[in-house]
Amino acid sequence: MLLSLLKFVVRTRFSRPFLIFLAILLVYYIGISQTISPRSEGLILGYYGTAIVALFLAMSLAAGGVMILKSDRDYLFTLPLSTRDLSVSIFLSQFMAFGITILLMFGYLYQSLDSPLFLVDLVALALTFTSLGVVAPAIATKVRIPLSAGLALWTLLAFVGFPFSPGSAFYGNLYDGTATLVALAAVTTAAAFRGLSRIELDMMKSLVRSTSTEVKSPISYAGKTPIGAIYSMNLSSISLAGRMNMAGASRYVSRRVKTKWVIAAASILAIAYYAFVIRLGPPQPFTTGSDSLPTSVLVPVVLSFFAFFLSQSAITNERVWLSLTSLPPATYFRHLVISRVASLFLMLAPFIIVDAVLYASGYGETLGALAVTASVIPGSFVLEILWAAYIAPIQVKGDDLTMPAQFSLRQMSTAIPMVAVLVLVSVAVLFPFIALIGGIVLIAAAAALTTSAGFWSRVVTRLTENGFV
């Protein structure tokens, strides 16, 4: 019975081409990991591993969700099924969508890290990542966000030598870090299965919480023009979720936070980033040494992923029938994109300022980070919005735990613009000016598409074909 149920759950959540592609990708990464010879790049890989672990664990808890379809609520949950079998099936499908991301991001480093416990670390990370997404909806937002920040901070404590941190296994404390990861995986996995055993109750609690929450500080657009209302909405508050794609899996939520609080949080993080760079050592001219990573790679990579998550919410929450009755499609979407980019700049500004100050103070390594943050990320952000709108638009029509569609290759393709970003981030380590030129090219391409009436006409057609209302 368990195998039949698992097959049913998987087939209703993943398209066949996606499953085939995922299997090919895993085989490819395993093969790559076996061909890469061990290298002594402990510092670089330590920065990379710890930062990625902190980012994805925090995001999984902050904006996670359970892979529940509307048909599950209407059909699957009404059947006389074993609670254990149902929980196992949903958890395994959740693992395929979210936990597999850890394997894809770390698997090819197997030979490079040359760690005897690397497989244990990977499994523990994947289980934790999967489980945090399962337990997230049962936790109130005002509790979940501080917990996510605390989890990220706990992971980053590995940088200051704290041994019992989820990131320590990648940064000099292999055995203590691995023990911490295993303990964290055991606790979160147990909590996830407990949550899955009562998933219907948690779904109702989440629905009641989202529909009965008091509306505070409503935004008024009285007296504003249609264009003015667009800028007022997107500059006064920032959508921190909406649609997010991870290895083809999408999570749909809707959380808007006042811009002033986001800027305050970004400023605090930028100050911490400044202190971290200062702690690394005295100012020195630009070199290609390993010290370039935290300034030219680490922070830009984290900001790039964060911007990507934000880009996926730009179109999916739109009510096209309402929006396009007030303005022509090209005009409406053009100002929507510009307002979103302006809000992104407000979040990036503290980091741009810190990079500029550091570079003026003699820290030559920050030149690459400055080029990426000021040009590459904004340019790619626009292209990510445009690509998601054109290739894989799926409208968010509610804010509960249900998912509106299967996970497919079309959804996974929304991450294609991130490839250019990661390439330019890598280039920035050695050739900052080339990264700057690449960023300018991205901005030029984004500007050309944003101002193209023909492009937006095709987007509206795609939105209509994909069921937007």
Task: Give a written overview of the molecule.
Helices cover 69% and strands 4% of the residues. It has a two-stranded parallel sheet. By secondary structure, it is mainly α. The protein has two domains: 6-215, no CATH class; 224-469, no CATH class. It is built from 20 helices and six strands. Helix 12 packs parallel to helix 15, helix 13 (293-311) packs parallel to helix 16 and helix 16 (366-391) packs antiparallel against helix 18 (416-430). The model is unreliable at 241-253 (pLDDT under 50). A hairpin with a 2-residue loop joins strand 3 and strand 4 (249-253).
Amount of helix: 55-70%
What spatial order of strands do you see in the largest sheet? 1-6
Low-confidence stretches: 241-253
Proportion of residues in extended strands: under 5%
- The number of helical segments is 20
**Main beta-sheet strand count, sense and barrel state:** 2 strands, parallel
Distance between the first and last residues' Cα: 40 Å
Shape estimate: globular
Give the number of domains.
2
Short summary:
By secondary structure, the chain is mainly alpha-helical.
What is the fold's blueprint, element by element?
Elements: H1 2-13, H2 16-35, H3 42-63, E1 68-69, H4 70-74, H5 83-106, H6 110-113, H7 118-135, H8 141-156, H9 174-196, H10 199-212, H11 226-236, E2 237-239, E3 242-246, E4 249-253, E5 256-258, H12 259-280, H13 293-311, H14 320-323, H15 329-360, H16 366-391, E6 402-403, H17 409-412, H18 416-430, H19 432-450, H20 453-465
Parallel strand pairs: 1-6
Antiparallel strand pairs: 2-5, 3-4
Helix pairs in contact: 1-5, 3-7, 3-8, 3-13, 5-7, 7-9, 11-15, 12-15, 13-15, 13-16, 13-18, 15-16, 15-20, 16-18, 16-19, 18-19
